[in-house]
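User: I'm putting together a teaching handout on how sequence relates to shape, and I'd like one worked example. Could you take VOC domain-containing protein from Spongiactinospora gelatinilytica, show the sequence you're using, and then write out its predicted structure as tokens right after it?

Assistant: Happy to. First the sequence, then the structure tokens directly below it.
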Amino acid sequence: MSKPEFTAGLNIAMKIPKAQYEATVAFYRDTLGFDVKEDDVSYAPTVSRTHSVRFGPNTLWLDCVDNYSRPDLWLQLHTDDLDAAASELADIGIHPCDEVEPLENLDSRTHWIKNPAGVVHLLAESGRS
């Protein structure tokens, strides 16, 4: 098996408790003046609302999570070979944790993983997500 390549993705997800969601959306839209638009959340059953924000070359997703008590930041990674990447990560104790947010109706090969500090990353096969 060849060594997989990892690259940074363009998506950052900020998981926000319901109680702080409206104020957070207003901060990016009204205070900072970013273009903020509400998007469909049918693919992510744990997210009740989401807004996207152009954040330089990245998209910042403001996800309302009704059962969260504190915010959390999730990052996206790409790899050219998801199977080889999962195997290499497993060798150092990093295993898929796809239960953190089941993704439905996506035409992509992905796994959720957590880095050693517990930060969630969406690991997606390049060109698919």
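A couple of points you could highlight for students: The longest helix spans residues 18-31. The CA atoms of residues 46 and 101 lie 6 Å apart.
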